[in-house]
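TASK: fixed-backbone design
INPUT:
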């Protein structure tokens, strides 16, 4: 604790203060920490610099700002490259191999303190001592020291809170939103969700941190997955992509209110509620001006005719008739919307969904004549890492397709008002109810057969 207090009083490690040769490459770490290395490999942390989308955006931002953001952005995407003075130039021509490893083992475990959160105020002390979350670690290869910071969200908040370097506009508010949430009040940290098998809550991961290390009740997972199934897919990290999709599927829940019956020739209104039930930050978060969450609400009759659809995508990836796109909209110095956060100096709008917050949409459609009952209303919460149009602009049309992830879905059924109530059997029972009935019937048959044998 004394070490942490002294480190917090120091200045963040400056650009060019160290050499990349001061750091240890992951090829050495893997010799004792193979499991942890395999978890990290392929993640957005391991690809923080080589992420092709980041590199395209970084190139544009550097040109737009005459290099102003070169070290600013790189401090989180290639921290070793910055503290060793290998960036600038922005083209990465001076970057060493170890700097291209992004947020790698020896960087995190030579963080010896910070000057708070936001804009990467980390202090790194490369050398024989590695800092971590255990106060009794022993290693034959290096010295080990406990650092309280490694157990706290403030460690993550160094990079997951970003303010514009010139005008101070808060660009990434992941950490501040968590800090003001009930999760923080309850003591739930970033690590509890992002470094355990539990995804949306802490779940112990028994194991060892390295070969020869003692077995512990919990070893933090180093996959540290968020919701990026786009870049991980491009880079062929299919396991990480799968985990990102699973995380998105557990972030939100839906509820729907609709009439049980409706006449043809009348307007029908359904209400769909979205609850951020699993994320300790806004959804979406990060560079959320390019993230897209929206509802697709689809109404079809029993004959397969589509009566209503809001939120579908066209063949170019455009979102058609969605009532809302849940993200924030940034504005430039002229007050015009911009997807280039480095040109932004204001927030024009923000309808992201906060931790444990619920928002609702009302969808109204006309029930046409000749409707074949029953009518099914499907609501699907969609997520996309970036607009397809933006990716086409950066990489060329047809080069990369941004996957649309179904985060949650719910269905209700609307019946013919003339149908007897007892015949309205299709519907609102919970998923898996039919399977439950089938299993119960099989169990009854089994018991009856056994009773006969016993008699």
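OUTPUT:
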């Amino acid at each position: 604790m004394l070490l942490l207090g002294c480190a917090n009083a120091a200045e963040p490690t400056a650009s060019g203060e160290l050499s990349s040769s001061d750091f240890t490459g992951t090829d050495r770490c893997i010799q004792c920490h193979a499991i942890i290395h395999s978890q990290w490999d392929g993640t957005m942390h391991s690809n923080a610099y080589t992420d092709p989308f980041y590199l395209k955006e970084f190139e544009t931002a550097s040109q737009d700002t005459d290099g102003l953001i070169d070290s600013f952005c790189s401090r989180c995407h290639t921290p070793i490259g910055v503290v060793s003075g290998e960036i600038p130039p922005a083209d990465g021509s001076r970057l060493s191999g170890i700097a291209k490893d992004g947020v790698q083992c020896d960087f995190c475990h030579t963080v010896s303190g910070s000057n708070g959160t936001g804009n990467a105020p980390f202090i790194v002390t490369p050398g024989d001592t590695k800092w971590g979350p255990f106060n009794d670690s022993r290693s034959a290869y290096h010295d080990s020291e406990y650092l309280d910071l490694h157990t706290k969200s403030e460690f993550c908040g160094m990079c997951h809170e970003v303010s514009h370097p010139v005008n101070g506009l808060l660009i990434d508010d992941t950490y501040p939103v968590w800090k003001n949430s009930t999760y923080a009040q309850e003591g739930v940290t970033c690590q509890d969700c992002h470094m355990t098998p539990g995804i949306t809550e802490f779940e112990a991961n028994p194991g060892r941190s390295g070969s020869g290390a003692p077995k512990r009740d919990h070893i933090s997972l180093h996959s540290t997955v968020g919701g990026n199934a786009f870049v991980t897919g491009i880079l062929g990290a299919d396991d990480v992509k799968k985990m990102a999709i699973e995380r998105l599927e557990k972030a939100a829940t839906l509820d729907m209110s609709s009439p049980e019956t409706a006449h043809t020739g009348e307007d029908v209104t359904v209400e769909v509620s979205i609850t951020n039930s699993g994320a300790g930050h806004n959804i979406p978060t990060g560079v959320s001006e390019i993230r897209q969450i929206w509802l697709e609400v689809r109404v079809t009759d029993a004959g397969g005719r589509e009566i209503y659809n809001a939120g579908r995508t066209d063949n170019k990836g455009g979102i058609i008739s969605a009532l809302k796109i849940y993200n924030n909209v940034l504005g430039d110095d002229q007050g015009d919307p911009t997807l280039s956060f480095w040109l932004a100096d204001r927030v024009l709008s923000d309808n992201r969904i906060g931790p444990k917050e619920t928002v609702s949409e009302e969808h109204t459609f006309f029930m046409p004549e000749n409707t074949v009952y029953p009518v099914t209303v499907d609501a699907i919460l969609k997520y996309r890492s970036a607009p397809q149009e933006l990716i086409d602009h950066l990489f060329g049309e047809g080069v990369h397709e941004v996957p649309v992830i179904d985060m949650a879905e719910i269905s209700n059924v609307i019946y013919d008002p003339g149908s007897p109530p007892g015949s309205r059997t299709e519907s609102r029972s919970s998923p898996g109810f039919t399977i439950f009935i089938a299993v119960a019937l099989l169990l009854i048959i089994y018991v009856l057969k056994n009773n006969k044998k016993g008699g």
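COMMENT: The chain has two domains: 2-231, 251-435.
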